[in-house]
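HOLO CASE FILE
Compound: adenosine-5'-triphosphate
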Amino acid sequence: MISEPPASTVVATDGLVKRYGSVTALDGVSLAVPAGSVYGLVGPNGAGKTTLLGILAGLRRPTSGSVRVDAEEIGVLPDTPTFDKWLTGREVVELAASLTGAPADRSAVVLRDAGLTAAADRRVGGYSRGMLQRLGLAGSVVGRPDLLLLDEPAAALDPAGRREVLDLITRLRGQATVVFSSHILDDVQEVSDHVGILAEGRLRYQGSLADLLVGERTRYRVELGTRAPERLVAALGRQRWVAEVRPVDDATFEVEVTDVDAAERSLVEVLARAEVPVRSIVPHRRSLEEVFLELTA
Ligand SMILES: Nc1ncnc2c1ncn2[C@@H]1O[C@H](COP(=O)(O)OP(=O)(O)OP(=O)(O)O)[C@@H](O)[C@H]1O
Ligand SMILES: [Mg+2]
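Model generated. Tokens follow.
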């Protein structure tokens, strides 16, 4: 039976498999990208990200499985954008604009947004790797796509360029659905609302970033102005919302809780009853990097 994906997904694959000879690059990937989302695709080298994005872009053919892409205009940035080296940057973007029916003055705007105005009339054969990436980005957005597929859009960029890409993605929110891959997990955590964690051709997680980071448990790190008394550790351990109390050093310990609401109501009270000086109580949120390393280990 073929299950129908919810209507609100822009991209949906079902049981996607891609083999290159004896190498299985994708091993049953069922991707669901909600309309209007910024979907970050992460995974170790060789996980299958480029293969997956290539299939979504129609540049590679799956071995089996189905792909549905509901978009009128798709902008694509491949992992290593290449252009005819005799063309100038402006010509590359104007060509892309003419293919999508974008107005002529739109080219100058995207070249400026990509920081390429000064280099626009140079031949791309002399562009640096980062400049080629900027040009690829300019070309991918010139036709105002409603779906953008970006393979490591910030990989070769300097810090300012990377910031510009993140701002660009943020600006596109609400106007387009964006699927992008990246190894820079802080970037993914900053701009994505949905993530897919791919490892060895399989999706280890897919869903909202917020859900992924909250997880089932949360930790608080408590630092006292004195050595942590045994009776306090024991008192905390007796709370039904406490899973574990772990010492970090003499004055610091971590409390792992199973019920955040209960912890927020009662943790301070338990500490107060122990009459110890409290320096800080810091809730520990999981970072995408932490979860990524856990799921791809
Ligand atoms: N054209 C190809 N021919 C043969 N094998 C390929 C080809 N493209 C990819 N592969 C293999 O498929 C697997 C997935 O590769 P892919 O490039 O999709 O990974 P990736 O997640 O994009 O990795 P990276 O983070 O290094 O960019 C790897 O084992 C790779 O060697
Ligand atoms: Mg890749």
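CASE NOTES: The pocket of magnesium ion (ligand 2) is lined by residues 49-50, 79, 151 (CB under 6 Å). The chain has two domains: 9-210, 215-296.
CLOSED: yes
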